[in-house]
Each structure stands twice: as structure tokens, then as C-alpha cells.
């Protein structure tokens, strides 16, 4: 394990006890941050020059279906619900899962994401699950592998008042592959919850997750299902809410729902682009949940959801959350008489770092640049202007602006390029997968 010194960057630590350090240094010993300050000395250390750049905690994508990252960016909502979720999984072999997840994880790293919550519903066989985990491990990203319900075969039996219990294979993966909760890739369960399964199945699935002692993620608060399932009321009645549960989307949760999630220690993960473009946020609540979550005592995390739909990465979600909330502030003040929530670029950056880490149960390890935490950082290039918050520069960034990415103390991107041979290998594997799948679907060009 080597010593690494990040020198002379504008350190945006997001740690309240450290704050902002212009011309600051970060010292890394092995996989751990050991010091943050100015003028740090480390004879023999590898030095990364960050002068004129912004050093931030690695971004946390708290809800992403990583296997879908390699699918066409032009996928429509109808294609998503039809081809992607009903037809494609039956033709997606374990080798396609490996190729897609490796490619997707590397794309995330390239854009400054160091941690991803992989809500995996391509686990149609144990071999599919194994290849998903292997790809996450091989990519170098920090990941929470959320073992979901399989969507191959008769997808409706898993998502319409389902009486199917969560796959028993999760026990094998927990005991054989992901039993170490201090490792870079750890395990959770992606559960359907009351909006997609019966209350009895929901209770059984939650018991399974807690028996395995893993975090729980559910997609909830969706317009088409919330009124019928009364998600938070049902979970509360069953005694299932708690700090180990995070809710992805939550677009139509009421203030009472949000307050109850906050009171029980749970969290919300907004996916601004998907929530708006796929009709999850409608009517007076047509905006992402971010502002209303803040107003009701929650610090929302952010996710990209279907990366196939969004090519701007998590910085794009940060921008979308901020711009949507500014639009909502005008709307609610002028038409609904509500008190608007005013968010800043710094708030949005906290959503994509601190809040993401907390939502995934990793707040003690990542999310801020703090001594004792894991060395997950990104260095972003951009125009530094005295009167601008550096966080706004991060929000405006693209993958090309991310100069360096460090995960667990390992430099996985430097001088604007991914390191090692994984990127080229991922391209070759993804090309082979594309050719296999192109014979039957127009979604993948020949």
C-alpha cells in the first residue's frame, strides 16, 4: 500500500470541522485519508498536482441499474417497460451482464463517481448474479450490490401484486461472495415493497434482509402505485420502517410520508431526470422530491436510475435537482402559497456525496474528505472564479473535466484517462455483447 499526496488543490471537504481549504493538500496512506491541510509533507509519497483544480469527495450514485448502462441512450419509456424489462433479460446471458456492468461501472468512474448502489434486477440465474458481482469487483468501483428480483421470464409475476418471495440465492451470495461488510463491494437487497408485492411478501422479504443483516432499497412513491399501496402507512403498520431502508424515487410521497421516513431514520434517493421524464412526478408534484424532502427533515441522495436514459452522469442529476427546485420555488410561491425551499449548488453537491453515503449505510467510511475515512476522491478541472462557489463548477462539469479519480487509495483515473487495461477490455466485451444482441433487437445497432 503506497502513500499518496494530493498537492495544492482547492479542497472542498464537506466535513464541517475542516471546511474549505484553498491551496490545500490531502495525504493518503494506503486506502485511508490520514491528513487534510496546507503544506503537508510526505517524503517518498507519490504526488498528484491538483493546482487550479477542485478536490471533492467521490460522488455517490445511490440508485443505478448498472447493467443497463451499455444500452442505447435513445431508449423511450415504452421501450424501457417493454423491451428492456420484459424481452431483453431473457436473452441477456451472464457474459452480457459482466460486459454491461463492467462498462457501466467504468463510465461512472470516468464521471467522478466512486460509489454506486447497483439495483440489479438482471439476476435471472445465480450465474447472472455472480457475473454482476465479478464485474463490480473488477471495475475498481466501490459498490453496494443490491440483489433484486429477476425480471426475466414472466416479469409481471414479480411486479404486480406479487406473491413471489425474494430469490433464495441471496443466501449463497451473502455467505460465499459478499460476507465482508468492510470490503469495497458489499451487499444489500433490492426489494419490491408494497407497491409491487403483497404485504405478506413484503414482510417476508424484509425479514430476510434483516436476517442477512444487509441494507434494504425499495423503489417507492411512484404515481401509478402509491395510492393503492399506501407505501409508508403499510410499512409502518407492519413495523418495517427503519434506518436500514432507503426509498428510491419517492416522487409522490406526502409530507406525512416524508416526516415518517425521517423519524424512523430512513432515507430518500431522488432520480431527478428519470422521475420527471418517465412521469413519476406529475401534477402539482411534477418536480423531483429533493426540495420537499429537505423541507420535511431529510437530506436526499441522488441517483441516475437508468443510465441508458441519461448521458450526463451524476453531475447532470445535481444540475437537474437544482434547476427543478428553483422552478418549483417560483411555482409554489406564486400558485400554491407554500414556502419555497431555496437550494444552492453546495446543497446539491452534498446530496451527491454526504447524503448518498448515509443512504447506503457508508457514512462512516465515505462522503467527506476526512482523516480516517476511505480515500475516495475526485479532482475536477474548471474555471475557478473568486466570487463563485467551487461546488457550482463541479455541477457544470462533464466526464472530460474530471482529471483524477481515487478509490480506496488507488488512482483509477489520472490526467483525464482511466488507468489500467479494464477500459479497453470493457469495450471489447461490450462490442461482443452488442453483436450477440443486435440480431433480434433494434435497440442495439448492428
From TrEMBL:
> Is-annotated flag, keyword Hydrolase?
yes
* Keywords from the UniProt entry: Hydrolase
Q: Does the keyword Hydrolase apply?
A: yes
Q: Sorted alphabetically, which NCBIfam families does this protein's record hold?
A: PRK08204.1
Q: What is this protein called?
A: Amidohydrolase family protein
Domain named Amidohydrolase-related: residues: 54-412
| The organism of origin for this protein | Actinoallomurus acaciae
Q: Which Pfam families match?
A: Amidohydro_1
Higher taxonomy: Bacteria, Bacillati, Actinomycetota, Actinomycetes, Streptosporangiales
Per its UniProt entry, which superkingdom is the organism in?
Bacteria
Amino acid at each position: 500500500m503506497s502513500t499518496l499526496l494530493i498537492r495544492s488543490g482547492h479542497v472542498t471537504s464537506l466535513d464541517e470541522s475542516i471546511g474549505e481549504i484553498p491551496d490545500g493538500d490531502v495525504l493518503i496512506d494506503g486506502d485511508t485519508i490520514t491528513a487534510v491541510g496546507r503544506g503537508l509533507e510526505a517524503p517518498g509519497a507519490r504526488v498528484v498536482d491538483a493546482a487550479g483544480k477542485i478536490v471533492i469527495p467521490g460522488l455517490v450514485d445511490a440508485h443505478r441499474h448498472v447493467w443497463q448502462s451499455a444500452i442505447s441512450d435513445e431508449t423511450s419509456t415504452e421501450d424501457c417497460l417493454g423491451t428492456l424489462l420484459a424481452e431483453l433479460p431473457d436473452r441477456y446471458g451472464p457474459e452480457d451482464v459482466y460486459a454491461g456492468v463492467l462498462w457501466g461501472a467504468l463510465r461512472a468512474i470516468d464521471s467522478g463517481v466512486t460509489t454506486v448502489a447497483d439495483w440489479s434486477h438482471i439476476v435471472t440465474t445465480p450465474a447472472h448474479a455472480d457475473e454482476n458481482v465479478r464485474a463490480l469487483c473488477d471495475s475498481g468501483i466501490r459498490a453496494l450490490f443490491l440483489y433484486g428480483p429477476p425480471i426475466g421470464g414472466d416479469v409481471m409475476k414479480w411486479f404486480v401484486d406479487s406473491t413471489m418471495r425474494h430469490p433464495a440465492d441471496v443466501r449463497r451470495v451473502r455467505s460465499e461472495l459478499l460476507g465482508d461488510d468492510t470490503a469495497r463491494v458489499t451487499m444489500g437487497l433490492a426489494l419490491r415493497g408494497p407497491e409491487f408485492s403483497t404485504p405478506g411478501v413484503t414482510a417476508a422479504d424484509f425479514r430476510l434482509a434483516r436476517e442477512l443483516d444487509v441494507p434494504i432499497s425499495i423503489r417507492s412513491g411512484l404515481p401509478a402505485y402509491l395510492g393503492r399501496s399506501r407505501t409508508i402507512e403499510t410499512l409502518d403498520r407492519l413495523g418495517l420502517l427503519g434506518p436500514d431502508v432507503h426509498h428510491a424515487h419517492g416522487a409522490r410521497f406526502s409530507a406525512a410520508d416524508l416526516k415518517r421516513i425521517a423519524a424512523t431514520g430512513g432515507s430518500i434517493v431522488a432520480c431527478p431526470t428519470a422521475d420527471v421524464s418517465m412521469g413519476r412526478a406529475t401534477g402539482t408534484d411534477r418536480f423531483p422530491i429533493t426540495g420537499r424532502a429537505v423541507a420535511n427533515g431529510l437530506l436526499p441522495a441522488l441517483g441516475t436510475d437508468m443510465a441508458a436514459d441519461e448521458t450526463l452522469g451524476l453531475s447532470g442529476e445535481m444540475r437537474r435537482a437544482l434547476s427543478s427546485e428553483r422552478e418549483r420555488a417560483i411555482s409554489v410561491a406564486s400558485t400554491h402559497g407554500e414556502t419555497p425551499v431555496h437550494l444552492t449548488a453546495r446543497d446539491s453537491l452534498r446530496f451527491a456525496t454526504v447524503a448518498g453515503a448515509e443512504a447506503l449505510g457508508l457514512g462512516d467510511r465515505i462522503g467527506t474528505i476526512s482523516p480516517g475515512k476511505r480515500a475516495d476522491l475526485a479532482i475536477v478541472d474548471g474555471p475557478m472564479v473568486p466570487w463563485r462557489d467551487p461546488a457550482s463548477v463541479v455541477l457544470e462539469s462533464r466526464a472530460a473535466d474530471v482529471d483524477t479519480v481515487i478509490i480506496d487509495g488507488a488512482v483509477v483515473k489520472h490526467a483525464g484517462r482511466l488507468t489500467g487495461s479494464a477500459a479497453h477490455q470493457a469495450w471489447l466485451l461490450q462490442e461482443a455483447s452488442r453483436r450477440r444482441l443486435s440480431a433480434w433487437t433494434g435497440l442495439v445497432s448492428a
